[in-house]
Amino acid sequence: MKNTVLVSGGAGFIGSHVSVELIEAGFDIVVADNFSNCDLTCFKGVKKITGRDDIPLEVMDFCDASATKALFAKYPIDAVIHFAAFKAVGESVQEPVMYYKNNLLSFLNVLEAAQDKGGCNVLFSSSATVYGEPDKVPVTEETPRKPAASPYGNTKKMCEDILQDCVKASNGAIKGILLRYFNPIGAHPSALIGELPRGVPNNLVPFITQTAVGKRECLNIFGNDYPTPDGTCLRDYIDIVDLAKAHVCAVKRMLDGKMAQPCEVFNIGTGRPLSVLELVNAFEKVNGVKLNYRFAPRREGDVTAIWADPAKANEQMGWKATRSIEETLKAAWAWECHLKTTYGNE
Ligand code: UD1
């Protein structure tokens, strides 16, 4: 019998790519989303890519405890991957209550529903932001977490702790995996799903593609006076399809009883640092487009350099990033061009 995976926030950027990989790996999935920060584009894309018109979609808010319980009662959920959360760092500084309420309550409701059902495998989408400005790079899972620089980052840390505590208290009924993502970028090679930021993008790659397509005038590179080889920040850009596959490995690990501990943490990155300038140059070269950019002052809250040591995920989970930065940046550009053809330059 097939296992069923609930994908909360499954209509968004990461959720939709994970949905595709889960279906291709033979899982049944249930997508649940309140569409607060996305529309039906990616969900429709998932159906098209997988040729599956029967994927259950539940339009609901995980902050609603009874709706969350009803969802767990309706489907035979073997594992849940929790993406449903707000994710804009700057906005979280302006609206901390909104961020804490949404990101914590939705996760607590998922955990309560899982407990009431007698247990579940829970995968939480965390972030490298929990490492703050690390003292040493690359970072391993043992690298100490730092105080969060934003309410958004704090919700990631707090949800990590909440899951650890629940697993501890559950006597084996709840198992947990925390995946700490580095910088997920790119799009599915079909160009049918990808990132759809509302308004002005905060993240680098959507800003690059929107500048290249003419939606934005000029990319600001935030800071060229960092103590790095070319003065711009270093990050670990991980292809979204590679990242999605890590979720399949993690879910299988939980379901197959392969976990070394009841709650595990994995870094999901490439182990390859790239500067902002290197990324911009690679984008121009691989896609044959000239990008209008200028150097601007540093952005508040940015760390100088962070990249993953992905050895634990490579060795213990059998997962490895495989796609080159060129492939990833080609896919990101193909997605932006697909959006332009479909919607014009709105
Ligand atoms: C941010 C969040 C991280 C989150 C990730 C994915 C922090 C500190 N960072 O990572 O938690 O998981 O987004 O959503 O919490 N840049 C420019 N110009 C731009 C945009 C970005 O130069 O217009 C630079 C930034 O200064 C940075 C790099 O590009 O050096 C990457 O920025 P971004 O894509 O926003 O990701 P992070 O800040 O690394």
Describe this structure as you would to a colleague:
By secondary structure, the chain is α/β, with parallel strands linked by helices. Helix content is 40%, strand content 17%. α3 (65-74) runs parallel beside α5. The longest helix has 21 residues, at 96-116. The radius of gyration is 19 Å and the shape is globular. The structure holds uridine-diphosphate-N-acetylglucosamine. Uridine-diphosphate-N-acetylglucosamine (UD1) binds at residues 87, 89, 127, 129, 149-150, 153, 183, 202-204, 207, 219-222, 233, 235, 276, 299, 301-302.
Note the topology.
Layout: E1 4-8, H1 13-24, E2 28-33, H2 41-50, E3 57-59, H3 65-74, E4 79-82, H4 89-94, H5 96-116, E5 120-127, H6 151-169, E6 174-181, E7 183-185, H7 204-212, E8 219-222, E9 234-235, E10 237-239, H8 240-255, E11 263-268, E12 274-275, H9 276-287, E13 293-296, H10 311-316, H11 325-343
Parallel strand pairs: 1-2, 1-4, 2-3, 4-5, 5-6, 6-11, 7-10, 8-13
Antiparallel strand pairs: 9-12
Helix pairs in contact: 1-2, 1-8, 3-5, 5-6, 7-11, 9-11
Bound molecules: uridine-diphosphate-N-acetylglucosamine.
Key terms:
seven-stranded parallel beta sheet; 346 residues; alpha/beta; binds uridine-diphosphate-N-acetylglucosamine; 11 helices; single chain; two-stranded parallel ribbon; Rossmann fold; UDP-galactose 4-epimerase, domain 1
